[in-house]
Amino acid sequence: MDLTGKTALITGASRGIGAETARAFAQAGAKVALVARSADATAELAGEIGQSAVAIPCDVTRYWEVEKAVQTCVAAHGGLDILVNNAGAIEPIGRMAEIDPDRWGDVIDINLKGVFNGMRAALPMMLNAGGGTILTIGSGAAHRPTEAWSAYCASKAGAFMLTRMLDLEYRAAGIRALSLSPGTVATQMQRDIKASGINEISRLDWSAHIPPDWPARALVWMCGTDADDYLGDEVSLRDDDLRARIGLG
Ligand SMILES: NC(=O)c1ccc[n+]([C@@H]2O[C@H](COP(=O)([O-])OP(=O)(O)OC[C@H]3O[C@@H](n4cnc5c(N)ncnc54)[C@H](OP(=O)(O)O)[C@@H]3O)[C@@H](O)[C@H]2O)c1
Questions:
Q1: What is the pTM of this model?
Q2: What is the CA(54)–ligand 1 centre distance, in A?
Q3: Between vectors from CA 171 to CA 224 and to CA 239, what angle results, nearest 5°?
């Protein structure tokens, strides 16, 4: 995929899948905007990538910050063609009778409201330009209850519905909306899951996780027409045929 001339805004770009996605998009020729709360980490990554990257401190739970991040991206790079809604959180992990309700709500704010905030802020710009691609990181947890992950499962199920809604309302206007379910990926999130010791995912051997550059490369592929079969739907990296099609493994 050649993304020369395109601009991508990636949320949660301070580490893990988001940081690898920023590297992969820049390598494919895109200009990138790196969004996360950890300003030092995104600034360091922008320095590593070079002129084509700008770091924008932003908390995706606050709409006005996301709107400002889109404006800053457009001012720096001249437009916005691709949004990657990647920022996410899994903690607090715990069963429903024990979990702190406010901390439960924080996960919804990041994983569900944060995704809506990204879509809502990017849409006017993209619709004005005649189209754009909005990719959201989903999860198998959207479709399958997983012990002690009620906030995460509910938020990912909701985020998948937002991708379907976006496709329903805006495909005809040129918006490509897709979700990526990466399987388990070797990042800080899996370290936190392992530390919890609850449920079968926490007991997986570390070697079971795919490296973060796999979802990053899948996201680059999803920007092309080859992925149009999946519009309004989910690309799952647990699918061996699809992995082969993308050139992973
Ligand atoms: N790892 C897996 O096995 C796996 C599997 C399926 C799906 N996913 C999904 O993939 C995405 C990336 O996860 P990861 O594994 O790379 O996790 P990670 O290493 O924990 O990274 C999470 C990223 O989200 C950012 N973030 C969290 N809250 C934010 C907020 N309020 N505003 C802005 N940024 C925020 C963090 O940056 P700051 O803290 O600097 O803000 C960080 O860059 C998530 O949506 C996750 O649910 C992961």
A1: 0.98
A2: 19
A3: 50
| Domain 7-246 coded CATH 3.40.50.1000 | no
- Ligand 1 atom closest to the Cα of residue 60 is 32
Mutation pick for ligand 1 pocket among 11, 17, 144, 236 (CB with most ligand atoms within 8 Å): 17
Active site residue 152: yes
State the DSSP H helix or E strand holding residue 163, giving kind and residue range, or none if neither: helix 150-170
- What token pair was written down for 107? 């996960």
Question: Based on C-alpha coordinates, what's the Rg of the chain?
Answer: 17
Whether residue 99 has pLDDT greater than 90? yes
Q: Atom 43 of ligand 1 has which residue's CA nearest to it?
A: 12
The pLDDT score that the predictor gives to residue 233 is 98
In whole angstroms, what is the distance from residue 114 CA to residue 34 CA?
A: 15
Compute, in angstroms, the gap from residue 172 CA to the centroid of ligand 1. 31
| Whether 217 contacts 25, CB under 8 Å | no
Whether the CB-CB separation of 129 and 193 falls below 8 Å is answered with no
- Name the active-site residue from 63, 152, 170, 230: 152
Task: Report whether pLDDT(249) > 90.
Answer: no
Half-sphere exposure for 16 (CA within 13 Å, toward CB): 23
Chain-centroid distance, C-alpha 188: 15
Q: How far apart are the first and last CA of the chain?
A: 18
Average pLDDT over residues 19-45: 98
Distance, CA 243 to ligand 1 centroid (Å)? 22
Is the CB of residue 243 below 6 angstroms from any atom belonging to ligand 1?
no
